[in-house]
Amino acid sequence: MTNSQYYEKAVESLTMFSKLSPIHAFILDKGFLVIEESLSENEKKVLEELIDVTSSMCDFQMKECFHNSQMLVYVWESSNLKDKYPDIELDYAEGYVFTPGTENFPILHGFILINDKIVDLTLRVRDTNYESIIEGYEDRTIGLIPEGYVYFGYKLPNEDVVEQIETKNRTQTLLDNWEDGWPYLKEYSPKKRKRKK
Description:
This protein is an alpha+beta fold. The protein has one domain. The protein has six helices and six strands; from the N terminus they run ααβαααβββββα. It has helices spanning 3-18, 22-30, 41-54, 65-78, 81-84, 158-168, and strands at 32-33, 90-98, 107-114, 117-120, 141-142, 150-156. Strands 1-6-2-3-4-5 form a six-stranded antiparallel sheet. Helix 1 crosses helix 2 (22-30), helix 3 (41-54) crosses helix 4 and helix 4 (65-78) crosses helix 6. The longest helix has 16 residues, at 3-18.
């Protein structure tokens, strides 16, 4: 399949699931397609420094996307890195990722954006032709998106990540946060969609 076919399949899948799940509908209505773009040398330097500081408390395990991404955001917000690099915008996002073989099944996922460029240190890329720009993380999505991968996201406030870590001592999805009554979905009303004939 081509990347545009992967994208079309992902939108079709999100649309189908949006009829069953308000989170899928929320991402479809309010989210965005993550577009690939290489990190600049300065952005790469910032990411390497951020990983170095964060790795003392997080080892970026698979299946820990919310923890991995939120710890990066927490370090960014609570260290001097944010002040040291005022030209860098780092955002936390949650949404769905589709990977080769999961085109019909959106996976709720957390990741960060550096100046709107994707950094996903959780998923391991299975494409042997793909190699990211950060040593030790060659199999992670950093800037360029591997063939067959599609990311949809929604930026959430970094302050909410910090508050969750500091007051509740936890890292978990913010969008599908049933423990706190799905705060991002309380005011949300899904768009009406026309049925395909």
